[in-house]
Every structure is written in structure tokens, then in C-alpha cells.
């Protein structure tokens, strides 16, 4: 998790975003209100609202004007998590029961739809057409990424192109949009908007790659889920792809990856094969390249305090493996 001290400049404003979220997920129907509140109370990094607020610091910052965007971004993210949990049949998220585990698939789907629809109401408050245009396009691509993940589950023939296609759509594009639209809403010039969009995209790619590394090497408390849960669900990540291409035990690994009902001993065996192949270091090096690209975009931005904060966030993601 990105430490709160990196968000110290916007800490009060993030509390206001949280208050708005609590108010906004309320619903006349008690079941819908309860399931939405349950998801919100599960916590989260609130990365997307934070990046929107930080991006706005480069021009004319107005929390009142930014609040609808910040809340909408988190609602879109929350909606995607609820739908993901249904698809993945997830029982816990961040150590708490998922909406699916608590209320079942039907309530989960409608909760996700409700949150997404609420985000549309918020987005409609902006006159600048770029806000709706960017978020609608990103939402479509997020769905494409999810469909691709479903259709390629347990497929040991995936390559790097498949992986980068998926994480771009499932993770990087919404983080990029958060940075981009924070600048748009603050009235920033196109040069600043473009730089922040590219910063967010590269940071988002690095963030997801690092998450996929941690799925192999972190402990359960740090992850909030069992180690190797992606493998168990048939999600083929960067370390897995590298090991299937380079490990002397690639045939054994491919068999485990393709097995739908694998047990914990097989998952742990696969992780040992992946670690021994050098896949963790390889994946970390790819993540570092994205971090470098993200920080390169910061050179274009004005020399304000927030520029240093964005560099520190990139550095923090770069060391999350430890």
C-alpha cells in the first residue's frame, strides 16, 4: 500500500472525498445501501482520487470542483472490483468477505452496476466533454481487459502481448485517466495534461506488475489474500509467462497453470519453479523501466511541491518488493 505520508499535502482533502463517498453510496433500498457500504468499509488505497487531486495541484486547484471527479473515479474502481469478485468467485478482499461472499452474485452485479451508474451522474456535472469522453472510453477498455482475462484463464499459451494488453486495460488506463482528468478539471494546458496522463499510465503499469510479483513473494497479511491466488484462479501474470518460457521445468509449470482444480501443494510448487527461473528479477526490471518512463514525464511539469510527491510515489512503487 502506498503510505499515507506520501499524500500528506492532500490528506484533509482525501478525508473530504471519503466523506462524500460515504454519503454518495447510500441508497433508498436497504440491501443496496448495505452492500455498497460494505464495499466502501473494506477500505482501499483511494489511489485514483489521490492522483486526480495531486494532478490538479499543477494548475488551478479547487477541491469543490474536483470532488465529483474524485468520487466518480473511486466509484468506477469499486464497481470493477465487485464485478471482478463475481468473475473470480472471490471470498475475501483485503481480509474481509467480498460482497459476493456476503450476498451472492446477483446482489454483487447490481451493486457494481449501481456504483457505476452513480459515477455517471457525477461526471455529468462537468461541461468539459473530455471528462465524459475519457472515462467512457476507459470504462469500455476495462471491460475488454476483464473479458480477455476470463477468456484466457488457465491458458498456458499466453505471451507478453496478452499480458500487457490486459494490465493496460484493467489497471493502467484508469490511473492514467485520474491524473489526466485532475489536470483537465483544473484547467491545465494540454502539455501538462499529456505529461500527467503518460505519468499515470506508466505508473499504473508498474503498479500492476509489482502487484503480480507480490502475489508470488509477499506474505498473506501484506497481500490481504493467499499467496499465489492469481495462479489458483488461472490468471497468468508476467512472472509466470517468463518462467514458462525459460525454466528447465517449464513443462511441469505449464501443466500446473492449465490445471483448474489445483491444490495448495501444486501452487507452492509452481511458485518455487517461478522463483528459480529468475522471473521475479526479470519482472521487477520491467517494472523499473515503466517507473523510469513515468518519472521522465515529470521533467515536463512545473517545479511545484507536488512534482516531488509524484516522484516519491514512483520510487515507493519501485521498492514495494521489499
In words, what does this structure look like?
With 322 residues, this protein is mainly alpha-helical. The chain has one domain: Farnesyl Diphosphate Synthase (Orthogonal Bundle), CATH 1.10.600. Helix content is 73%, strand content 1%. The chain is built from 16 helices and 2 strands. The chain has helices at 11-24, 30-41, 47-56, 63-88, 99-103, 105-123, 129-151, 160-185, 190-217, 220-223, 229-232, 238-246, 250-258, 264-276, 279-298, 305-318; strands spanning 92-93, 96-97. Strands 1-2 form a two-stranded antiparallel sheet. The longest helix is centred in the middle third of the chain and has 28 residues, at 190-217. The protein is globular, with a radius of gyration of 20 Å. The two termini are 12 Å apart. The model has no long low-confidence stretch (mean pLDDT 91).
The major β-sheet equals:
2 strands, antiparallel
Arithmetic mean pLDDT: 91
Q: Tell me what the CATH architecture is.
A: Orthogonal Bundle
Radius of gyration: 20 Å
Backbone shape = globular
Q: What is the ordering of alpha helices and beta strands?
A: HHHHEEHHHHHHHHHHHH
**Number of H- or I-type helical stretches:** 16
Helix content: over 70%
Low-confidence stretches: none
Strand content: under 5%
CATH class: Mainly Alpha
Number of domains: 1
CATH superfamily, please?
Farnesyl Diphosphate Synthase
Q: Whole-Å distance between the termini?
A: 12 Å
CATH topology: Farnesyl Diphosphate Synthase
| Derived structural class | mainly alpha
**Adjacency order of strands in the biggest sheet:** 1-2
